[in-house]
């Protein structure tokens, strides 16, 4: 629908909005009637639906190489003792793996 001149008052915008809403509701109702009768073809139904988004194809990249370890990095886990299970008290595993 082409709007010859846009409203300049709030009341005019209300009227235009109501008119457009009625047209939209009428089109939806007609679409349901035709679909119930089998009157719409696949092409016509596709025109009513929003276009499906296609996933973008990305260029293949080789797997990233792990970063080289810093030889001067702090060994923070060295200060901890071995893992001890809370269930059985043995070292080397956690309670969830007991």
Secondary-structure blueprint:
Layout: H1 10-37, H2 42-48
Summarize the structure.
Residues 40-60 have a biased composition (Polar residues). Residues 40-82 are annotated as: Disordered. With 98 residues, the protein is mainly alpha-helical.
Question: If you had to describe this structure to a student in words, what would you say it looks like?
Answer:
The longest helix has 28 residues. The chain is built from two helices and no strands. The model has no long low-confidence stretch (mean pLDDT 78). It has 98 residues and is mainly alpha-helical. The relative contact order is 0.05. The chain has a domain of 43 residues. 36% of the residues lie in helices and 0% in strands. InterPro entries: Znf_CCHC (IPR001878), Znf_CCHC_sf (IPR036875).
Any descriptors?
98 residues; mainly alpha; 2 helices; elongated; zinc-finger; zinc ion binding; zinc
**Number of helices, counting only DSSP H or I runs of 4 residues or more:** 2
Globular, elongated, flat, extended or rod-shaped: what is the shape?
elongated
Sequence of secondary-structure elements: HH
Largest sheet: none
Helical fraction: 25-40%
The beta-strand count equals: 0
Strand content: under 5%
Cα separation of the termini: 70 Å
Low-confidence stretches: none
SS-derived structural category = mainly alpha
Please state the CA-atom Rg, rounded to the nearest Å.
Answer: 33 Å
- The residue-averaged pLDDT reads 78
């Amino acid at each position: 629908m082409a709007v010859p001149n846009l409203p300049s008052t709030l009341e005019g915008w209300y009227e235009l909005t109501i008119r457009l809403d009625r047209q939209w509701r009428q089109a939806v109702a007609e679409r349901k009637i035709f679909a119930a009768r089998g009157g719409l073809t696949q092409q016509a139904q596709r025109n009513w639906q929003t276009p499906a988004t296609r996933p973008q194809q990305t260029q293949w990249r080789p797997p990233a190489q792990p970063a080289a370890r810093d030889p001067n990095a702090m060994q923070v886990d060295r200060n901890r003792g071995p893992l001890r299970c809370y269930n059985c008290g043995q070292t080397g595993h956690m309670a969830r793996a007991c």
